[in-house]
Amino acid sequence: MAELVHQETSDGVVTLTLDSQHNRNALSRQLLTELHSGIDIAEESDARAIVLRHEGPAFCAGADLKERSDEPADSGPFVSVLERLMDTARPTIAAVDGAVRAGGIGLMASCDLVVVATGTTFALTEVRIGVAAAIISVPILRRVPPGKIASAMLTGETFDAAEARSIGLVTHVTDDVASQVGELLDGIRAGAPRAVRETKALLRTVPTLDRDAAFRRMGTLSDELFGGREAAAGMAAFREKRRVDWSSFDA
Fold first, then answer.
1. Which pLDDT tens digit goes with each residue over 57-104?
2. CATH 1.10.12.10 assigned to 192-248
3. Quick check: 22 and 57 in contact, CB under 8 A?
């Protein structure tokens, strides 16, 4: 059986490439299983970042409707992939240079940074086949206020990259996806490994805390980080006007 998700590790980054072009990179059981394997590799290798990209004219068309119509529904593997992309300690980047539909939007939205080509189009088409964008509403509504995406979810209408950027669904719109992703990876590598991990974590947790609890937890974290090896190396490099080589620090 042909591989549907290619894995490549280079310079501390694990790149996972969706390549199931016969069904527009639909979320088949095999593709989801291979995505899990790719995330395993990133975790085991202590990668600094994960990039999720694609081959073909579509990033992801959503659920594999043939599988869904032939067998009982089982959302578990897809939910788990979304959770792992959201919860992994390393930053995740979706690199999108093609159409995104339905569940593919949820896959994309589960990444921390979403870089899309200027001509990319999106549609949440679930209601048109008699279902709802239920599972993917979890990552989507953590990025986008409900009122800003209600029309797309209720009607299945197509919207463009500029609209996706304006509502917060994507973080970058560009004519050169690979170049923009490369710049983001350079920025991640320029940061201290633990500092980047803690920053990803606080972006998720601080909004869920009340103000006093947030200040307590973040005050403790700040004191701990300022007293750590990374801060000592970073501040010494700042004084000496040089960059830090973080390769000797744990990713």
1. 999 999 999 887 777 778 999 999 999 999 999 999 999 999 999 999
2. yes
3. no
Please classify residue 202 by burial: count the beta carbons closer than 10 Å to its beta carbon, then call 0-12 exposed, 13-18 middle and 19+ buried: middle
Handedness of CA 225, 189, 176, 18 (dihedral sign): negative
pTM check: above 0.90: yes
Query: Is 170:115 a contact under the CB 8 Å cutoff?
Result: yes
Q: What value does the mean pLDDT of the chain take?
A: 96
For 10-43, write each residue's pLDDT tens digit.
999 999 999 999 999 999 999 999 999 999 999 9
3-state SS class at 136:
coil
Q: In the chain, at which residue ranges do the beta strands (DSSP E only) sit?
A: 5-10, 13-18, 49-54, 58-60, 92-96, 99-101, 113-117, 121-123, 158-160, 172-174
What's the CATH architecture for 5-187?
Alpha-Beta Complex (3.90)
Q: What is d(CA 168, CA 1) in angstroms, rounded to the nearest whole number?
A: 38
Q: Note whether 23 and 61 are within 8 A (CB).
A: yes
Cβ 103 vs Cβ 78: under 8 Å: yes
Q: Is 173 helix (H, G, I), strand (E, B) or coil?
A: strand
What residues does each domain of the chain span? Answer: 5-187, 192-248
Distances (CA, A) of 225 to 31, 85, 215: 39, 25, 15
Check whether 251 has a pLDDT greater than 80.
no
Instruction: For residue 84, give both structure tokens.
Output: 């792992």
Q: If we measure between CA atoms, which residue out of 112, 89, 94 comes closest to residue 35?
A: 94
Q: Which position has the token pair 């990374």?
A: 230
